[in-house]
Amino acid sequence: MSADRDVLDWMVDHRSAALTDAMTVITTVGNTAGVALVTVVVALILVRRGHRHLGPGLVATVFTGWLVMNALKYAIRRTRPPVPERLVDISTYSFPSGHAMVSATFAAAVITLLVALGAFDTARKRTRAAAAVVTAATLLIGFSRVYLGAHWLSDVVVGWLLGALVGVAGIAVVSRLSGRAGR
Q1: 69 in Cβ contact with 162 (< 8 Å)
Q2: For residue 176, how many other CB atoms are within 10 A of its CB?
Q3: Which residues, 6+ apart, have CB-to-CB distance to 14 below 8 Å?
Q4: Are 24 and 99 in contact (CB under 8 A)?
Q5: Which site in 14, 43, 54, 88 is 20 to 30 Å from 166, CA atoms measured?
Q6: pTM (2 d.p.)
Q7: At 131, phi and psi to the nearest 5?
Q8: Among 39, 32, 78, which residue's Cα sits nearest to residue 170?
Q9: Contact assessment for residue 128 and residue 134, using Cβ atoms and an 8 Å cutoff
Q10: What is the spatial distance between Cα 38 and Cα 12, in angstroms, rounded to a whole number?
Q11: Residue 92 and residue 123: Cα distance in Å, rounded?
């Protein structure tokens, strides 16, 4: 895609040492292990607050996003941007961006949980802040992947969209099942 190439070229032309350092930190924190750790912490908080089905459901939802992402990578087998522009060494396929998809799955799942639990009605400022933080984090993570030349823009955008879909759908299923289990 021409837009993918144009965006990558623009990013390369606007790189700086400080921004590259910042994007490297963001991409490292936003990797699968980082998102998995945050997912487990939030799941434990949910369980501790009495939502015994939603904690494991969050973990299952994010894990499902990771599985879908990997299946798509190996089914599509899209190559990454070329090495001169790529600032990170990666040997897996490019589409969709795992960082973007898994972080978006987490963000969408958390926001869907907050809506399902009525948190926007009861603790608006904290809830909106939490939703803003997870949304900003996934956007920064995806941006870092394009900036570092690890992905094409379309890899990241589709990763965000698919991740949001998996996150919302996963929590909808978990909420429905936990509602049945509570009867």
Answers
A1: yes
A2: 11
A3: none
A4: no
A5: 88
A6: 0.89
A7: -65, -40
A8: 39
A9: no
A10: 31
A11: 42
* Pair 174, 116: CB distance under 8 Å: no
CA torsion sign for 112, 118, 123, 124 is positive
Is pLDDT at 75 greater than 70 in this prediction?
yes
pLDDT grade, residue 156 (50/70/90)? very high
- Spatial CB neighbours of 16, under 8 Å, sequence gap ≥ 6: none
Peptide bond into 81 cis (omega under 30): no
| Tokens coding 93 | 């396929």
C-beta separation of 100 from 155 below 8 A: yes
Q: Are 85 and 8 in contact, with CB atoms under 8 Å apart? A: yes
pLDDT tens readout for residues 25-50: 999 999 989 999 999 999 999 899 88
Q: Which residues contact 128 (CB under 8 A, 6 or more apart)?
A: 120
For residue 138, give the 3-state DSSP assignment.
helix
- Three-state secondary structure call for residue 110: helix
Omega cis (within 30) before 82: no
Alpha carbon distance 179, 183 (integer Å) = 7
d(CA 173, CA 166): 10
